[in-house]
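Long-time lurker, first post.

We've been arguing in lab meeting about whether copper (II) ion would sit comfortably in this protein at all. Half the group thinks yes, half thinks no, and nobody has a model to point at. So I'm putting the question to the forum: if I give you the sequence and the SMILES, can you give me back a predicted structure of the complex? Inputs are below. Any interpretation is welcome too.
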Amino acid sequence: MNTITLHIPGISCHHCIHTINTELADMEGVKSVEASLDSKLVTVTFEPPASEDRIRDLLVEINYPAEA
Ligand SMILES: [Cu+2]
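Top reply:
Settle the argument with this. Predicted structure of the protein with copper (II) ion, as tokens:
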């Protein structure tokens, strides 16, 4: 099991949090998602077939790209 924390500058309201939670939770292999409106940080716990690259790609697709 892996855990990553990503900074997503585009988070601005609870709708953003909801969208990110829902989309990431739908990815196969993602076990938990914790997104914070205050810090704009998203912590994702996952196992294969999910990966950091796939998670980052999904965030780009839904217009919430994570900082490098
Ligand atoms: Cu928002």
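For your lab meeting: Residues 14-25 form the longest helix (12 residues). DSSP finds two helices and three strands in the chain. Whichever side wins, do check it experimentally.
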